[in-house]
Structure formats: C-alpha cells, structure tokens
Amino acid sequence: MPVISPEKLIGLQRKAEEVRNICILAHVDHGKTSLTDGLIATNGIISPKLAGKIRYLDSRPDEQLRGITMESSAISLYFSIMRRTEHDASPVQKEYLINLIDSPGHIDFSSEVSTASRLCDGALVLVDAVEGVCSQTVTVLRQTWIEHMKPLLVINKMDRLITELRMSPAEAYNHLTKLLEQVNAVIGSFFQGERMEEDLQWRERVEERVAAAAAKEQERSERKASKMTEGSVTEDSESTATGTAGEFEEKDDVDLYFAPEKHNVIFSSATDGWAFTVRQFAHLYEKKLGVKRSVLEKVLWGDYYLEPKTKKVLGSKHLKGRALKPMFVQLVLDNIWAVYEATTGGNKGKGDPATVEKITKSLSLSIPPHILRSRDSRAILTTLFSAWLPLSTAVLVSVIEHLPAPAAAQASRLPALIETSPGAKHVDQSLRNAVSGFKSSPSDPVVAYVSKMVAIPASELPHNKRRGGGTMTGEEARDLARKKRAEIEKARAAEGEATNGLQGLTEAVGEANLEDAPERSEPEIIENVDPEHLIGFARIYSGVLSVGDSVYVLTPKFSPANPHSKPEPQRVVVTGLYLMMGRGLEALESVPAGVVFGIAGLEGHILKSGTLCSQLEGGINLAGISMGAPPIVRVALEPVNPGDLEKMISGMRLLEQSDPCAQYEVLESGEHVILTAGELHLERCLKDLRERFARCEIQAGEPIVPYRESIVNAAEMTPPKDKDLPRGTVISTTTSKQITVRLRVWPLPPTVVDFLEKRVDLIRQLYSRQKAEAEGTLSADDSVDGELEQDDADELGATTGGLLSLVDFKDNLRTAFAEDKTHSDLWTDAVECIAAFGPRRVGPNILVDRTKTGACQKFLRESTEAGHLDPQTDTTGQEPKTTLTAQDFSDKISYAFQLATAQGPLCHEPVQGIAVFLEEVTVAESSDDEATSREQLGRLTGEIIKTVRDSIRQGFLDWSPRLLLAMYSCEIQASTEVLGRVYAVITRRRGRIISESLKEGTPFFTILSLLPVAESFGFSDEIRKRTSGAASPQLVFQGFEMLDEDPFWVPFTEDELEDLGEMADRENVAKRYMDGVRVRKGLQVKGRRGRDAEKQKTLKR
Q: Which residues pair with 700 in a beta bridge?
C-alpha cells in the first residue's frame, strides 16, 4: 500500500464522525505490538513482511532488546472501506482516521496503561489463546470498566493451538468457549460489584428520605395537634418512600459480555498475519449455503449444527444422536487447520503443494508463482492468509463499526467522569455541555486532558529535521543534489589545502597554548549535546486549540470550588502542536475536538498530568483522579563525579515529569532518592538518566525497601523490665524533674488495624476539619460530611473503603474493638478517649487519653463540642496563668506520639498496630518563682517531647517486637517440565506458595505466591535463567505481612540451648533485615565480635 501523506491524516481530523481513538491493552507477551505492526503495514510505513518482527512502536533500544513495550506510543492510521449508504445503492468509499495507542503489558508499567486509556474511547483487549486470562488481563479489563470504554476482545495467537498444543478443531473450539467464559466472568464480577454498591446507596437514600419525612411529620404534629394533618403527612411520607423506591431500576447486563455473534470478538494470529470475525465467514457462506447472512451470523458460534443433506441449521435438541460438528468447527476452524496442514505440514511436518493449489482455487485467491515455488513454508502461509483473511481488514472494520466516534463516546463517558472529578458541583454548566455535547467550533470553550509528558530529543522535533516518508519533488531533488556537490567540492578543497599547508599546520600546532584547549573544545561538546524537550500527550474534548492560544493549566489538585487557591493555575501559551506518528512528529497548526495530539509549551507547568481549560472559574479537572499503584522501590542515587550533582538533580526532575510513575525526593539525610514501580522500571529509569536526562555517570545504591514495626503478645517473652508495673507501662520524669508521665503501650487488635488502614481518607478529613475550626475558617455547625470534607476527598482521589460519617466511623471502630473478647475491659470507652492517630496523624496507631483531668483533646469529638481554650489566655481578659497544668502540654504529647510512631525503636521505620494509653501527667511547681508560666513552657517543651517519645519506645520494647515485610503477589505460568525449578527459586527467596492450578486444556500451571520485596531483586532474571525462559513472573505489590520472629530472640530455655547452643546457630532473619536497615541509616548495630575465633586453632600453619 502506498505511503499516506501527513496532509491526508490532518485533513481527516476535521471529520469527527470518521475518527476513532483506540488503545491496545493486554497482558505482557500477548501480542499487542505485533498486532500493531500488522495495522501499521496497511499504511505503507513498514513492509508487510516485517510486520510482527520490526516492532515499529517499540522505539527505545531496550524495548527492542528485551522484546517488551515499556512506554505507550501513539500513531495515526488511514483506512478506507467501500460502504453502501442504502441496501440497493452502489458502494461509496469512506475514509477513516484511527488514532491508535499501543500500551505496555508489564506490571511495572501499568501507569502507562492508565494514561493511554483516559485518552481513548475504545479498546482492543488481547488475550493469548493458550495462556488465557492472566493478572494483567483482569487489570486492563477493570481499566476499561472504570473509564467507561467500549472494548473489543481479540483472541490472539490462535496458531499456538495448532503448532504447540496440536489440538484438533473440535478441541480448539471447546478451549475457546471456556476462554470466552473466563473473560465474561471477569466482566460479570465488575457488573455485580457495581450493582451491589448502587443498591446500597439507593437504600441509604430511601432511609434518609423516610427519616426526613418522619421528622417533618413530627414537626407538623407538634404545631397542629390534628388527626387529619397527621394522616395526610403519613400519606406523604409513604408516597415519598414509595416514589424513592421506584427510582431504582435494574440494569440489563446483556450488552456487556463478549460473544462472537455480537461481532465484538476477533480471532487472530498477529505473527501469521490473519484475523477474522464471524461476520466475514457468514459473508463467505451466504451464497454457498443459501442461508441469509443475518441468520448465519447468529448460528456460526454456539451449539448449532449443519444438516449435511438438507443444508438446514439444527439446534442441539434436534441432533437425535448424530455426531455432527458444530458449525464453527465445520465451516471455520476446519478450513484454517487445513491451510496450516497444507503449508507448514501441521502434525505431519511437511506441506502439500497440491492441497495449497486446491485451496487457492476454491477461495479464488491469486498467489505469485515465486511464492508457491518457495521452500519457506511460512512465506506461503502468510501470503495465503493475507490474501484470504487479512489482519487489518478484520480488526479495523470491527473498530469502525463497533467502537464509537468521539462525539458518541463523550456523550456517554464524560458525564460520569465529570461527576467523579474534584468539586464537580462547581463546574460551569457551559463547560459540561461543551464537553458532553462535543462542541467543536472555534468559539466554544477549550477543554483538553494531558495524560503524561513525553521527553523528545530536540533533533526529533519537526522543525529540526527534514520530513521523511514521502517522495521528493524534482525541484527538491535538484536542490539536494546541488548541496551535496557543493559539500563534496568544499571537502576536496579543504583536503588540498591541508596537503599543501602541512608545514604551516605543524607550526600552528607547535605555537598553540595548551591552556586555551579546553576553552576551544567546550563549545564543540555543547553543540553535540541533544537536549530533551517535554511534549504533552493530550486529548482535546471541546473547542479548537491552535498554536499561539493561551489556556489555563489546571493541576490535579485544582478544584473549581476554590479556583484561586494556591498553587493558583497559570496561563500558558501553546508553542507547538504535533500529530503523533510513533517514532516521529508532524507539525500542526490547530487541532479540533476529539483528536489525540502532542502539545509543546507546558514544560515547567505540568508535572505528570493536568487539564487545559480556556477559563478558570468553573473549570473541569479531569486529572484529579489518581490512577495506578504507587511506586514501592526506592533507590538512592549519586553521581560518580561529585561535580555532576547539579546535572543529576536536573535530570531526575526531568525524569519525574516524563515518567508517569517515577517520583523524585530528597530525604532528611540529604540522599537523592528515586521511587519506581519495580526492578525493570528502575533499570529503565537509570538508563534514561545516564543517557538522556542527566548525561553523566550515576551509581545507584542498594534498593531501599520499606518495613513496618509492630508488637505482639507472644507466648514466650522476656519478663517486664519493671516487675512492679504491668507489661508495657513506663513512668518517666523529665530532666528538670518537673513533669512525670505515666503511659502504657499495648498491641492493637488486628481488626482495628485493618479498619484504620482502610479509613485513612476519613481520618485525614477529620483532622482537616479540626484544623479549620482552630483557625476559625469552619463554623461549629458544619458537619463531617460537609463541603470541606468532600473537597478533601476529591483531592485525595479514589478512596479505599468509601466515606463514612463521624457517627458511623465511631460505631464501626467500637465494633472492631468489641471483637477482641480477651481484653474487652481494656478497650471500654477507648473510642471516646482517642486523642490522636499516628504517624502523620492518619496511621494505624492510636493515642488514648486515660488521664483523670483530660490532658489531651478528644480527636473524635463532635463539631459542636467546645475545644480547649488557650491555656495562657482567658476570654474574660484576666491576667495570664501563673501555673502550668497537664493541658498545656496537649499538643507536645501528641507531637511526641507522632515522632515515636514515625520512627520505631527497631530500625526507625514507621510503627503499626500499637495503642498508647496516657494514664497520668503530673506537673510539679517550679522552684524558680520569678519565671512566668510562658517561660517555663518554652523550656519544658523539648523535655516533655523527648521524654514521651522515649517512653513510648521503651514500652514498645517491653513486648515481643516484630517486623512487617513489604510483600509482592507473584503470578507465574509454567509448564510441568519447569515447575520444580520455579518452586525451588521461590522457596530459596523465602516465598510462600498460595495456590497452584492447571489451566484446563493446556500443559500450563498458574502459580500464585507471596514474595518479600526485599528478596525480589534479581528474582525475574533467576526464574528466566533456571527455566530457560519458559517462565516469567508478574509481581504486584500486595501490602505488608508480619514476619513472626523476634529480632532480639536468643536461646534461653534448656532445650533451645541444647539444640542451638549459646551462639544460636539458626539465622535470625528478622535481625538480619533490621541490622541491614540500621546500617543503611547509620544507626548503631549490636554485633558479636570474634564469634568463630576458636576455629582458628584448627587452621593449618
């Protein structure tokens, strides 16, 4: 096919009905990029022979080397089709523009999938015919569900059923049926979960309205003690409840599922270049069988059979014991299997040229004679299939006919996305209508979403290179020839001058000053550097955006409720617009609504994602919802040459902007740390830093793995340090002997810890409300569910466990405490006495104030309750207090609690699952009579913070301490031959097998296991080496799990001393982890010196 000019593609952007924005989503190695190659070949960009091999959109060298996609890439494709406007009308050519985005399938780059899906209206979801539904398959299906995208299912690698599993057509049909059921089961689980949530919300609304009606009835009955009024009000309340109940409608889920007869399933083999839908075969057999095409489309898949004699279609009930093949097997799969056997030999191992000739004649296909004479059976196979069932035709026709155009997609998708955006109630109605109604005139407001920033070398920008791809005109060729001749003549002249003036050149070199050499060579080095420019990867939803336009950049934290809050959005001028063409860019003057494009001029204004809007008041924030898992792997970086520190810092900032998942931060110790999603993602980031962004040698330290510290009530523990006090109780006095604090540390029940971890969002909102009340910006009548909390929730994005009111939160927390039957008296009224959560005021640790005088404020207090007054002043205007009380140190004790839980005593990692009971705070009178209470408070602040912090740590160590390890959920697909090797690697790295299941109809096992993040580095490479590439793991962060081993354990019973000896021959894994973190942080490590000194006696001299 001839190369399509960019002008042709740019012209099609104006025809919104002929535009499709799609992305390709799948698990890793399921054939996304190979399928994309087949589609790109239709536009003449690459040769059809190289499709599936060249991996055109994998433009990075490491992508080509590893054979996986790491960055989402976009390309615009042209496709034309002959279509009839009416049944009897002659076909007319229609042209379409397909904006295609290829996304990664590896779990480390799942953030790239999120950025791609928001820009598109439809998705091609690929599933390997052999491997079936994998972990990332479920993830991408959930992404299409959340983004309200319409998906098409592509069952790829159908050739593996023939060449690898050597299935018969009937066995393949049964396998495909089960595969389709697996995918539909995933979709059904999403639908069921959503319906249950909607039903719960509907019931809550009904209860609220009934309660409101009952309240009104009571008010009216009090005002008018009339029976008739009461009766009418009762009828009103009943009708209100009935009307509310009638609003709930059951949704039909029939259209959600994949079924070949609905034309939303494509069967393909991207490597062999073929694909088909049921509709294509219905068209082929329409005249041959004499059955209407519409009927054939419905019966070609399913339990339908063809009567051989009468050519009638029979259902399974009418078989009457006859062994007939399903129509899909007889009419579709048998023919495909026959082509493979005739060309590659199938199970026989050798093809049959006579059968190939017979097939080509029966299908009326013309294959070049030199191909038929070729000894390469795959060349014959791919040529035959490309003529019979071309890949691009099946895929692109399905995309055009079954995926929506931008106008239809925005009308169905955008209202729901706007409702979930921050401050949705304050969005301007004109903007809502423009986005949902697809307003595309220059006078309409502009709304565009920037999903990520892409780093492009300056040499790749359109204005810095000559346009490639098209044929040059005669004038361009002559100009180029003149320039080449001039360059050759100059080179020859310079060569002659150099030969004649060799002596002068020698003298010049001898007279040269060495000190001037660096100054002369420095500009040459600067000229060779190819700087990186950040281009926004965007989609415009309404209006027209042109070069030179000025728009507002709305950050992900922007809310239209407070449009001028800091950081206030800034206006930027669009300096360039680009058509994304895979490895290249084409310059644009303007882009209309519904187009995926690149935009320049946002560098320094957008960190990762953002929204462009032509107005600030009432703007829409489409970037306010966080997507993807947070990065878990931290690595400290430093330049090899200390002089390159500024280069490294600027490079890391540039990397943070260009990578959707990478984060850069500076620790308190001064270390420059990069956070990545996994080991492979870390490798890519380091490569980009060294070669593109920083351009200096950088060395990475050991990965910084997060841990958590906790305590348990173990069966065997060392005796309490103070035998006169209960375990965990500490009495401490400040240095000045003026303040005495008694507190008790106790482990929290696991149910309470789980509950608090899921309600971080609500705890943060409660703290925001208290802070606003203290500053006077929130009235006492505002409730927890008010506008402030809603804005905070919007700012946080999607919540983990949903929002609760303060009353419900306290009730649920009491229920969680009540499940601890063993120490129920300890948790009595604990909820009412909670003074703080920690660390960072939202963690799963609580500070409970059990002092008689109430030293600390209640955290879970109602907004109508009066808080503490400033202890140093009085509202009546009296003189300042001369004595200090425990209430004066309320905020200091809370701050000490935050410090103690943020850095635990084991290795200064965050603490989880402890309750600190503040039992008594005694303040003695100062001996210094001249000092005022204010002066005493300033002197005692540091003392009490240090005392309380150390007391909590001391009480923590009175129990049996534990480390919580960050854990990966690991999924591996492996055959029976390598199963034992996979188990050996997992066990050696302290992993734990959760489940093992055999995929029916295949020789592959799916192994699910848990693996510590600390042991995961190098795990993927080791698995691939041990299994010779037959298995590859997918690692997903699962959370934290307790390592049931005391890091301070030493043998002390007679049996333990007899078995292990005084030196404890068994390795203490928890101590090894703890000591590793302490060494990295520069903390003291208590080790044993000369442990094996006695063994030196046996050494030879």
A: 637
Query: How many Å apart are CA 306 and CA 331, to the nearest integer?
Result: 9
Give the integer Cα–Cα distance in Å for 1032 and 1023: 7
Taking a C-beta distance cutoff of 8 angstroms, is the pair 697, 645 a contact?
A: no
Residue 489, Cβ density class (10 Å: 0-12 exposed, 13-18 middle, ≥19 buried): exposed
Closest among 174, 205, 81, 182 to 131, alpha carbons compared: 182
How many helices and strands, by DSSP H and E, does the chain display? 33, 33
**Cβ-based neighbour number of residue 310 at 10 Å:** 8
Neighbours of 303 (CB within 10 A): 14
Please say whether the beta carbons of 909 and 707 come within 8 A: yes
Lowest mean pLDDT among 243-252, 679-688, 1007-1016: 243-252
Single-letter amino acid code for the residue at 299: V
Cβ pair 689, 655 in contact under 8 A: yes
Q: 3-class DSSP state for residue 732? A: strand
Interatomic CA distance for residues 953 and 911, integer angstroms: 10
Could you tell me which residues come within 8 angstroms of residue 629 by beta carbon, excluding any fewer than 6 positions away?
110, 111, 677, 1036, 1037
- Name the residue among 492, 400, 350 with its Cα closest to residue 20: 400
Highest mean predicted confidence (pLDDT) among 732-736, 771-775, 874-878, 1059-1063: 732-736
Q: What are the pLDDT digits (tens) for 608-631?
A: 888 899 888 888 888 755 545 678
Q: In a 3-state reduction of DSSP, which class is residue 1055? A: helix
- Helix-helix angle 502-511:474-500, to 10 degrees: 80
Do 73 and 100 meet the contact criterion of CB atoms below 8 Å apart?
Answer: no
Amino acid found at 17: E
- Concatenate the DSSP letters of all residues of 301-323 into one string: SSSEEE-TTT--EEEGGG-TT--
Phi, psi of 621 (to 5 degrees): -105, 95
Token code pair at residue 138: 């479920």
- Residues 696-731 have pLDDT tens digits of 999 998 888 889 999 998 887 888 888 888 888 999
Nearest alpha carbon to residue 919 among 952, 873, 965, 884: 952
Kindly report whether the peptide bond that precedes residue 567 is cis, defined as omega within 30 degrees of 0. yes
Cα–Cα distance, 916 to 297 (Å, whole number) = 69
Q: In this structure, is the dihedral angle defined by the CA atoms of residues 615, 618, 620 and 623, taken in order, positive or negative?
A: positive
> Angle at CA 1018, nearest 5°, toward 1017 and 1019?
90
CA dihedral sign of residues 362, 368, 374, 377: negative
- Model confidence over 212-227: pLDDT tens digits? 888 887 777 777 765 5
Helical ranges in 541-639 per DSSP H: none
Contact indicator for 897, 838 with CB cutoff of 8 Å? yes
Q: Is the dihedral of CA 1060, 1061, 1066, 1071 positive or negative?
A: positive
Alpha carbons 312 and 332: distance in angstroms, whole number: 17
Sequence-ordered strand ranges (E) for 724-782: 729-733, 739-747
Distance, CA of 1014 to CA of 1006 (rounded, Å): 23
Angle of the 169-223 helix axis to the 334-343 helix axis, nearest 10 = 140
- Residue in 624, 634, 448, 416 with CA at minimum distance from that of residue 536: 448
Tokens encoding 371:
């191909």
Q: Which of 355, 399, 398 is nearest to 380 (CA)?
A: 355
Asked whether the beta carbons of 129 and 179 are under 8 A apart, the reply is: yes
| CA dist list (Å): 670 to 636, 637, 1031, 1066 | 10, 11, 40, 37
- pTM, whole model, 2 decimals? 0.76
For the residues of 946-984, what is the DSSP string, one character each?
Answer: HHHHHHHHHHHHTSEEEEEEEEEEEEEEEEGGGHHHHHH
